[in-house]
Amino acid sequence: MTAKLSANNLTLIRGESCLFQGLEFALNPGELLLLEGQNGSGKTSLMRAIAGMLSLESGEIFWNDMPVNGQRQEFHGSLVWLAHRTGLKGDLTLVENLRFEGSLRRQAKTDPEVIYERLGITRLKRLALRSLSAGQQRRVALARMLMAAVPLWLMDEPFTNLDREGRQLVMDLTQEHLERGGMCVMAAHQDIEIASPIVRVRL
Amino acid sequence: MDSSNLQQPGIFAGLLAIIRRDLLLAWKRPGDVLNPLFFFAMVCTLFPLAVGPSAEQLTFSGPGVLWVAALLSTLLSLNSLFMSDYEDGSLDQMLVSPQPLPVLALGKTIAHWLISGFPLVLISPLLAMTYRMPSAVMGILMLTLLLGTISLSLLGSIGAALTVGLHRGTALLSLLILPLAMPILLLGANTVSLAAANDVYGTGIWALGAYAIASISLAPYATAAALRISNE
Hints:
The structure holds 2 protein chains of 2 kinds.
Chain A (H helix, E strand, L loop, with lengths): L4 E10 L2 E11 L4 E5 L6 H8 L7 E6 L2 E2 L4 H6 L1 E4 L11 H9 L9 H8 L14 H14 L4 E5 L7 H16 L3 E5 L10 E5 L1
Parallel strand pairs in A: 3-8, 3-9, 6-7, 7-8
Antiparallel strand pairs in A: 1-2, 1-4, 4-5
Chain B lengths: L10 H18 L1 H22 L3 H24 L4 H6 L1 H6 L5 H30 L4 H28 L7 H27 L5 H29 L2
């Protein structure tokens, strides 16, 4: 096994039902791991398990061929998670939210203004997040992801609430990240138009 | 990646960032912050009205009433410690952040204490005047409340972390915390009573200090563990 991120024999039981059993995957730089499945099939749970927030029934997740559990800090320093709930504070402005994030994680050298411009949120900078639409808030969450200088992106339903142009933007950004040698784990139901190699996991 | 040479921010940067963010949030929503403080002030001012103006009785019951009110008002404010973070997903982001979770939990608790505990200490002499407390004893009252509220906030953060996933966990939170908070209440109220009676009161202050130091060093780890469990 030489993959950057890999997992073997993952089993997760929630309550009475077994969400997945004996699940395996291996992901290398430049590849996208696409989690497919119906609602409630365990996509989010798998993603939480990868992020180390759920304890699995069996199996282990490896980062650089070493178990994630033994190096949680390093692993968390290499990933950013775009969750279903944005995790941004509605009372704070975009800049205040992102400044807080910047003190937690390694940040890219890119000028934040360039990122805001690309995501079309420059004119929203002074507003409290509460007053933005759901799609605009999702764009702010994307900005947080872009500003973190990390190789692994975990994206749970990144297209929710976004318009057609926004969805295309997410695919473009993912494509660019993969071309730079990044990795991405994405849970999505809709079709993905990404040229990079895709590893599919059917749940 | 080209950016791998960039530095991960240190834990001190993370601690300061979360304190600053929580203070900023409190500044933008002053109502939530002032509620426990109003509660404290109201209990302390209504009590003398109800029991009557007898000077002897007031000096006798003053320390106890002030301390009970301080304890209850802290418990009241603790419920919201992690609630909004849980609801908007920030707690998940804290759990996957490269900063150690105990540090972030400590930062949140420090911010909580600065918002709810510290103002309570500051206004306590004003309320103590209602109980005809001599100014020398007010100093002791403030000192015991200072040490006591630090311990209460830290212990409370464990309870708040355990009950964060439950809806309306306030009663359970109080039940969990009260046994641990009882020594603080007894030590605090008795120390002030002893000081008011011109008796030796030093031991109580040392004990409260020891309790505070033990809470600072242990509670953040327990809170972090509790947050992981309740967020699974």
